[in-house]
Structures are given as C-alpha cells and as structure tokens.
Amino acid sequence: MIVIKGVPASPGIAMGKAYILEDEEIVVNRVEIAKERIRIEVKRFKQALDATNRDLDQAESKVLKTLGKEHAKLIDTHRLILSDPLITKDVPRRILDESVNAEFALSEALDAVNETFEKIEDEFFRERRHDLFDVGKRLLSHLLKQEKRSLAEVDNPCILIARNLLPSDTVNLKESKILGFATDLGGRTSHTAILAQGMQIPAVVGLSDASHRVKMDDFIILDGEHGMLIINPSPEAIAKYQKAQLKTQQEEKALEALRGQPAVTLDGRRFEMAVNLDTAEDIKTVMGLRVDGIGLFRSEYLFMNRLEPPSEEEQYRAYLHAVKSLAPLPVVIRTADIGGDRLAQLGIDGPKNETNPFMGLRGIRLFLRHSDLLKTQLRAILRTAQYGKVRVLLPMISSMAELRSARRIFVAVQQELLAEGNEAAKKVELGIMVEIPSAGLILDHLLGEADFISIGTNDLIQYVLAVDRINEHVAHLYDPFHPAVVRILHQIVETARSKGKRVTVCGEMTSDPKAVPLLVGLGVDTLSVTPRMFLRVKQIVMSLRYENAAKLVARALTLADSDEIQRLLTDL
After folding, report:
1. Which one of the listed residues 78, 142, 370, 506 is annotated catalytic?
2. pTM value?
3. Does 71 qualify as catalytic in the annotation?
4. Residue 452 to residue 539: CA distance in whole angstroms
5. In the list 46, 398, 509, 554, which could disulfide-bond 457, CB 3.0-4.6 Å?
6. Does residue 130 have an active-site annotation?
7. Catalytic pick from 130, 191, 370, 490?
8. 240-263 tens-digit pLDDT
C-alpha cells in the first residue's frame, strides 16, 4: 500500500480503478511564411480567436447550468486572457515581424509568460498560469484543427489520474463516469479545484508525481477531505473507508426524510425554505425537494451565447414552465443581471473594456439605459401571472431614482397587459435586491416603492468590504462574518420588519452551514438556498432554537472581530 499526501481540493471519498490521462502532446514547429501570405496567417489566427471565444461561450453556458452564476464568472478569467494584448497584439506582431506561422508565434508568447510565472512564489499568481495555458491550448487546437479529448467517453466508473487537469476538462466531468480525480499539479485556489467543489466531485491536487506512480487499473482510494491518494490499499484501509462512505450515506438518508417537512425551529419559529434557480432545466430537481417556492430565478442564462436578445415569447415560455410547475407556490423572477460586456454580443452598442465591470453598467442600470430590454422582460414575466404566484425582483438598485424609474416602466407594462385582458398582472409584487450598501442605508425610503426585499449577500459583502471575491489576491478578505457585514444585515432586516415587508436572503450565506444560525437569529423570513444544500440547511434550521440564535446575533453585534463571531456560532 502506497499513500501519497497532496492538497485537499474537494471533499468526498472515491474508491475504484485508476484511469491515467496521458498528457496531450502538441508539437509546434516553426514555419517560415511567405510575405504575400502573412496577412492570411494573421487572419487565420484571428479566426482561431473567434472559435475560442465560442468555446468559452459554450463552457460558460455549461457551468451556468451545472453550477450557477458565481462559478460561471470563472470563465470571465479566460475571456480576459483571450482579450489580453499578450494574445491579441503580441502574437500577430510576431507573425508580421518574424514571418512565422501563428502556432509558433503563439507558443513563443506563452513560453515568455511561463518564464515570468516560474519566478513567482505566490501560489495565487502561479495558479493563474494554468488558466493561461488552458486558453493557449484551446487556441492551438483550433489552429492545428485538432479534436479536443472528451472525458465523457470514459465508459466505466473510475478515478482520473492526470499530470494536470485544466478548468475546461473539469467542466465536463459531471457528464462522465469519473468518481473523482487526482493531479500532480494544482493548488487549493485553482479554478479546477473550485469547479470540483461546485460539482461535488472528490479531488486531490498537488500530488507531485502520482501520475507516474499509479498504473492504469490500479485500485485506489481518493480522500478529498484529507488530501490523500492510497494506491493498492490494504483490506483494513478499504474497510475503514467503506465505513466512512456508509456513514455519509446514512446522513444523506436522514436528510431525505426532511423532504416536505416545514422548516420549524425547536422553539416553534417557522422559516420559509426556497431555492435559487439558475435555469429552467433545474425545475425537475427543485420539485423533488418539495420546496416552499423559488426565491430567486436567475434569468441571465437566456441572454447568453446568442447574437440578439431573447424575444418576449422565448422568455415567456421559460418563465411559464417554472411558474406552472411550482404553482401555487411563489416564483421570484429577477430581471437579468447582465453587464455591459454582453451588449456587443447581443448586437447592441455598449461600453467596451470597462475597467471594473462589477461596478459598471450592469443590472438595473443597463436595463434602464436600454429600457426596451426591461419592458420586454417585464411583459414576459407578468404574462405568466395568471398561471401562478409571480414576483419580480430588480437587481443592483442603489437609489430612489432608479427604483422609481423601474417602477414606472413596471406599472406601464401592467397597464398594457390589463388592457389586453390579463387581470392577474396587476397582482404581481415588485421587489428589490439589497446588494449595494447604499440600498441598505436608505432602505426605509426604498420600501415606500418596493413590496419586498431580497438580500444578495454575495455582492453586498464584497461591496461592504471592497473585496472582489473572484480576485485571487484579495479573495481571502471576503468574510461573511465580518462585524460590518453582520451589522448591515441586522439593519436591513430590522428596517424591513419596521415597515412590515418580507425579507429573503438568497446569496451563498444561505448555503453555508456555519452562517445559517446567524441568518436564523436575524429573523429573516425566507432562506433561498442552492438545490444541493437545501435539505442540509433545512436540517440545521430545524436543529436550532430561534431564541438562542437571536441572542447570539445580539452578542455578535457588540463584537469587533470576525473570529470572535465565528467562535460564538460554533458554541451555539
């Protein structure tokens, strides 16, 4: 028995035969290009850029459907690399100056960057080179017209062993029979690790030489919790891990028993338990959970990977499927929270290369500037009201002016539909996402125009703390338990309660077992959770006493340190 220690990337245990993924060798030769064909070579490179952009569109769509909006943002890193002057300008310059083929010019540019990365000690920086080479490999495969390998072709359950696994490979694992994976390279902060966590695939990275020590069809145990790979385990080791797997299965069975039960604390406080929906394709899974409704239907997927905005009819059919399937339960549909970078893809003039798109033209700002998009989406949503309980949610509201402008369009659309005979449209409530600190601070005024609120903790936390949560260099500062975060959440809930308005929380905090007691103690009305964490969060709610959780929040509001607040939560 051989035990190799690596870096735990995604928890879980997998046992089975090894499948060795051989490194793809891409041989690039230098080819002199005749002067009269240099422009054609540059054009060929630009066509490969376009094809790679289409690949990223497909990958983003797949990640969005599988894991949701937050993980889909990882693809933005690849977009940034693909639009970097290193790629867009340096490679064509090399072709022109040196009269060489596009493949060679690209490989030279990538080698130059790799030399820079090799000198960097910081793990965050070093991990980003894998994203660079993922993009580079995509480009080279298009230039060389090579078919990309598909892990979906693996036809027996197995554990994947590889020198390295790129994010584009990891995205496809969900469709394969791969039980888990182990790689020689990679770190805890790599995009490959983050994607594995999202897909709940056990993974260990940073194993150094596992791909050379493991042979095809070796029986192995992969321990993603402790970062271990066990080759040819002893009978005792197998028995130990089988027992651990059995315990996990028993815990999951206990969770299954909670389907359909109301989420009531031990002292009788009822909480609504809703789910976040990233695409209409997830409806079947959601219905099986027997939820209290859809707390957040993200409509962004309808605007992706296309050359024009979705029509009213297309949107209507997507929303109608969700509303009819869940009726009479509520479905909260958020107008698309897309950024200005999407406009060009949709054939609409918009800002180019925004320096900070997360604080740029996005959400309601974009839809108010292009009000035809907002009107079309509102018509599609409100038309479904006669088939179920529909609510509309506006993202990125930061001022009364924005909310009033959006409500005017909302009311105008309601009047249009009433004139067309759709009486149900007038019953639809209009709510706002509270995800910008300014909205939280003037919430008493905003609630005069908003019927309900939903707290988007992901953006609220990063704006309160000035932390871009997908920026590796500062992501560790993103802290849901920061005293400032606890205080603003408390202020938001108390303000809404004083105005008699309902509060939903729909960010990642609701799916974080450590944060659930805090949200319960704040006294929010609805927790909108990811489908995969729904039963686990319900179990936590049902194991708590609301009175104790409320006292915990009161104590947390007096503390000045995140660690102290987290210690409080562990003692509950």
Report:
1. 506
2. 0.72
3. no
4. 26
5. 509
6. no
7. 191
8. 999 999 998 888 888 989 999 999
